Amino acid sequence: MITFVDVLEFLGVGALLAPLLAFFCVGATMLFFRAPGERFVARLTALAFGLSLLASIGLLVGMAIHDVDRISVDLGGWFSVGNYVFELSILVDRLSLPFMLLTAVLGGVIGRFSRSYLHRDPGYPRFFLLTLLFASGMLIIVMAGSIDLLFAGWELVGITSALLIAFFHHREGPSGNALRTFAVYRTCDVALLVAVVLFHHHTVAADYQTAYGDHWPGGTAPFDGAIATPVGLLLVLAAMGKSAQVPFSGWLPRAMEGPTPSSAIFYGGLSIHAGAYLLLRNAPVLERAPIAATALVVVGIATALLATLSGRAQADAKNQLAYASMAQVGLILAEIGLGLRMIALVHIAGHASVRTLQLLRAPSMLHDFHRIHAAAGGHLDPTGGHYEMILPAGLRRRLYALAIHRGGLDALLDRFVVGPMLRLLERIDRAEARWAALFEPPAAPDPDTVARPEAPVARDGTEAER
Amino acid sequence: MGTCKRADVFTLRHEAPAMTDRGHASARDRLRAAVEHAAHVLPAQGPIGVFVHHNTLHAYEDRPFERAVVEAAEHFGAEPYMPEAWYRDRLGEGRIRPEDVDAILQADPDTRVRGDEPVLGGKLPRRGLRRLLLLRGIVETDDASVRWLLEEEGWIRRFARTADPATTTVMRTDTQRWWAEVVRTHPAPVRLLDDPFQGDPAAVLVRRWLGVPASRRGLEDALAKDATAVTVASLWAATARRTFGRPRPGTPRSTLSVERPRDVLLRACGRDADAVVLPILIPFLSAFLDQGIAYWPMPDREGGLYAAFRSLVSRGRWVPVPGAAELRALLQRQAEAGLAPEDVVIDALEAMAVPPERWADMLGAVALSLPGWAGMVRKLEHEPELAPHVCPPCRLVDYFAVRLTLDRWAAERIARRELAHAGPLATLLQRLPGPRAPEGGTTVSTVFAVFQVAQLAGLSTPAMLELDDRDLVDLLDELVRFCAIERRRLLHLAYERRHRHEVLEAIAVHRRSLDPLPAAPDPHIQVLTCIDEREESLRRHLEEVDPGIETLGTAGYFGVAISYRGFDDAHPAPLCPVVQKPGHAIEEVPDEAEVKTAVQHLARRKLFAALAWGGFVGSRALVRGFFATAGLGLLSMFPLVARVLWPGRVARIEERLRAGFFPRPRTRLAIRRKAEERGSLDLFPGFTPEEMADRVQRVLEETGLAGRSAPLVAVIGHGSSSLNNPHESAHDCGACGGRHGGPNARLFALMANDPQVRDILQRRGLVVGASTVFVGGFHNSCNDAVELYDLDEVPESHRGHLARLCEALDRARTLSAHERCRRFDSVPLDVTPTAALRHVEARASDLAQPRPEYGHATNAVCIFGRRAITRGLFLDRRAFLVSYDPTTDPDAEILGHLLASAGPVGAGISLEYYFSFVDNERYGCGTKLPHNVTGLIGVMNGHQSDLRTGLPWQMVEIHEPVRLLVVVETTEENLAKALERHRAVADLVRNAWIQLALVHPHTGRVSVHTGGRFEPFVPRTTRLPRVARSIDWYRGRRDHLPIAVVEAAMARQAPSLS
């Protein structure tokens, strides 16, 4: 007998699987046959997001009508180590549903947009492949029933983000910036991983449901402040990387290297809010850890202020939007730190829609500006005026210098993190070379140096003769 | 617009410090010359909002095209022609034919002189070898790739794919016979396989690759099993034996230009100074030149680039950029010494040990390391009025001062940290080694080239081993003399030749079929459009759907150079070719009767602007941003989804809303002026009747309309509008300076209808039919909308004609849209005309559409002549059509004007497309997908990059890179007369930046300009493909189409008005 809950569970699984299956379908075609045609890829993407959206709407309506607070589906364990079982369980509740809807709608819109925008680009199937994988990762993050599964989605989002920044990989800028972004992601991912381990160390509960008890936005952490504080701080650190918070925020403007629609969905729409989701989901931990919550508020506000300052000096469409995004996400995180969960949720949804639209329209900047300018009769209200009123001239100029250099955050990271790390690694490398040299006979010259005038291939050939 | 005048800029120029030192003064003079020299090669593109096509290599126009492209390629690190493989693909698909290659070789001076010399031991003449190299081609690669190609891609086992099977069969037999002989005569089985090659290591290696045992049996087995592999491998061994390690033939080395310190240091220690400099420089330049994107404008801009930079850096104490203190100290020293930007540049050049005679080269190299930004500074230095909103004082020398200060700072830092060099930079730079020239003898890449030549020419192993040394040296020389660039040049000439021949053949045959040229029947309606090749299809379809219509073409500003301010415009803008300055101001004003609507319209628009601007700024701010996103954010889901999913429908709804909310009053143009009235800024408000008559007369005479005007003449300007397209303006009318040409058409019609003007014209002996009525209009080449102006002033008597015109226009634009759609891959080929029209409408308002239209991508031909000689020809939207009647122009007076105005414009468009297609990364601006609008003046790639100039790939992807083929209906003498008076065009012709052909006005014979004279062109065919309608010819086909005759447009019987 199929119950109503079964139907809802089926819808939940369907919403997640649709883009994932589409990804495998496109990927397998590319891997085993050849690059699939544009129309096939575009239709499959539309179908995937359409199904995902329908399933999410079905869930929303069904859960609302039948007053179901949450649906959780256990898909079994992935693997187990000792007592630990990696549970594949999904959870649909008041927090995941809005995110699922956002992902499906924005994914679908971006898919449709890219169908024309990337038309005839050699990387067309690759772009869709990565977008589908990203959407799957995003859905895994928001539908994961446990923080363990969330981590898997978290990684998918990270890697697709980096690969799409480097979409034009024959150019130097995109590759370098993608690498930098990826490095920041990975650094902060360590925090998430440690948080997961700590979490498991101190509670047997594998999933949110058993860990936090009550359904979102309620719930209490399964451990006391002494544990909650480090876990909370680690979660905050993880979110800071993904959501480009101070001092890691330097990567966000650099990420504007990919095709416009990918910038829109990642850094206007979804990926940038993943950190906020993580903290919303684990809000009970923050509740028990006032230090972590305070740190979050401080970081959020600092980011919002610095990003607003930097954004105001940016003179190009995409960097300006990157900073505008960063500032609002800073506010969102601060809201979460203050415990304003519902406001944060509404803020995320609104912000994602506005920013995606603005980024998609970014190439229209000239057209729009011209139109507004003409409509205003050739005179726009000057901006930046109240700074001039409030701040003394010297300070204003200093702030401007800080703004145009984007707070110098990247330089700080380079100086205090990257530099020492590189020096350490270089030292290790040299030490290893010295060690290795002790055990090795002197290396033979390269036999393939065919460009040598005396004998092009002699060494190789004569050796073969012996 | 143009709020800042040149004078303001001049007053800001730094006063030279009182320095009496004559040596210093001369240093400044030298610097000025060096800056000018460096500026010379910078891209000349201005702010992107008004895109004007121009020859990318304008700076090289003083020399012949074929020399210029190679020199420029070396200078910019760009490509002069398409790659060889590309031309060979065109050979494969028949776009180039072997006969074209033969003809080009026949005409090539070097081949003509040396073509008969025998090469390869008398195997074939040099001409034959060159023919093989062009038609079949060899793969040239670097040493590192050769082994991969041999082993992994099978070049050691198989003949080159391009080798002729007949030749290779002979080679195989030869080699088999030769091996048999070797086996028979060889004294011992030992070293049997090595001795023929005198133990060359290559032979040993080859044997290993092939797996042939070193014995007689082994060889025989291998020959029996795979004779081809043994043949090819033996040839490789023999070639290596003969060619490896020989003295290199003298490569024509360029005088390598000067290196920047950054290049020297990069080579010396692998640290890239630009990686430090550019992240500081680019945001600074972008903010400095910003026209209003940034919320917070840069302080101290009014002092100029260098002063702003100094102020910015000196305030940057809070910025933790590594080494910032040193930069501040450097600038501090410059300030204390009272150095003007010129002195800063000189100081830096001296610090970098650049001798004064190389300053120009060094500044050139510095400028070209970031050409887009440097070029923009230069452009705004000379034409500050191009800046759309604000124009900070720009000087290229300021740019150099900033750039060199940064370069010097970064270089010194690297020198200190990486190379432990504490002294002055100059001593280090002199110590570090220069670029290494290749040394030693020929390497495997040469062997590989000769190996392939042998296969093409049928030179088998024994022949290779016995080849005379002199022949071998000659072959190596030939591979240098007839190098890849040379081959690409000839292939390109062949590619152009095929196109030229097809076009001229069609014109010649068609012209012959019309002989004697029938007297044109009186048309009922004439339509005068821009010469633009995109109007060709509209014109053809107009003549097809209504043979009573005749179309004509003239430069799309219709002879009225005006500064125009529309009712909706904030500022006046010049509507004329960029080389002209408008002398008259025209304003669009609301009708007296509708002043109320006008006031309301303006007020509501102001409100809209306030809301939109508030939204723009607010959504990016912090607190307002919170309310905008958290409060209203979700509302933007509606436009987001609707705009992306249903662009066409949303555009229509928007249009309706706009009409509802902003009702537009009826307007008229204020054109009349009393003789003495004079406005501000040297602009006359409007025209006097005399001035109007001058302009009308000129266009009527040029187009041959005078004396034979139809009852209704429509004058239709054009432009283009699209969304999400920073290059939108590049699709507008070039003759209107990259803007919409509608107002010019409207104005022209008003002038030509003016009774006073008619009187004056009559007095001057120019007959315009008393019953002729002119109507102005506008064609949007992106969505194919056509709008006619001031229709309420058309008299009752002409209503019938007007209705007929409207119907024809409506059908023609639908068909034209349909014809355009065949080029769009995303539109199915079986789309109906109505659906096609709807498609282009949606396309123009689609945010996701990177190619709203293909613009000038199809341009290839420009024809000056009577419509009669081109009417009915399907020219595939590839020809600029300039109406010109040679029978009324005995002294080539008119022709001179036309050539001088349309020639350079057409050449500019054609050459910009050529270069953006041939090297899209260097000369063009690459793919559009990551473009990022900067400062409202240009686009960068993604997060930060150089300002990208030229055309994006999406605009040029279907272009055929040929030089514009200009066909003029005139005699040789008249052309000479015309060119005599207009040197600029004559230079273009002489230096072959355009191709030129003539059609004799009376005999219809065609002749082509080659090597300074005209040679008769004899068509090979006598018939052209004939179709009933254009649609029958293009339907179902995507590519460029050959010219055909469309019979519907040839039907000369003019149906009477029904």
Describe the structure.
The complex is a heterodimer of chains A (466) and B (1058). Chain A is mainly alpha-helical and 466 residues long. In chain A, 71% of the residues lie in helices and 4% in strands. In chain A, α8 runs parallel beside α13 (290-313) and α13 packs across α18 (393-404). Chain B contains 42 helices and 23 strands. In chain B, a hairpin with a 4-residue loop joins β1 (118-119) and β2 (124-125). The model of chain B is unreliable at 1-20 and 1053-1058 (pLDDT under 50).
Record keyword descriptors for this entry.
heterodimer; A: 466 residues; mainly alpha; two-stranded antiparallel sheet; 20 helices; 2 strands; disordered C terminus; B: 1058 residues; alpha/beta; 6-stranded mixed β-sheet; 23 strands; 9% strand; globular
Range of strand content of chain A: under 5%
Oligomer: heterodimer
Low-confidence stretches of chain B: 1-20, 1053-1058
Helix content of chain A: over 70%
| Spatial order of strands in the largest sheet of chain B | 15-13-18-19-20-21
Distance between the termini of chain B: 50 Å
What class do helices, strands and sheet pairing of chain B give? alpha/beta
Largest sheet of chain B: 6 strands, mixed
Number of strands of chain A: 2
Number of helices of chain B: 42
Tally the beta strands of chain B: 23
Q: Roughly how much helix do the residues of chain B carry, as a percent range?
A: 40-55%
Give the overall shape of chain A: globular
Low-confidence stretches of chain A: 444-466
Spatially, the strands of the biggest sheet of chain A line up as: 1-2
Most extensive chain-chain interface: A-B, 114 and 113 residues
Radius of gyration of chain B: 34 Å
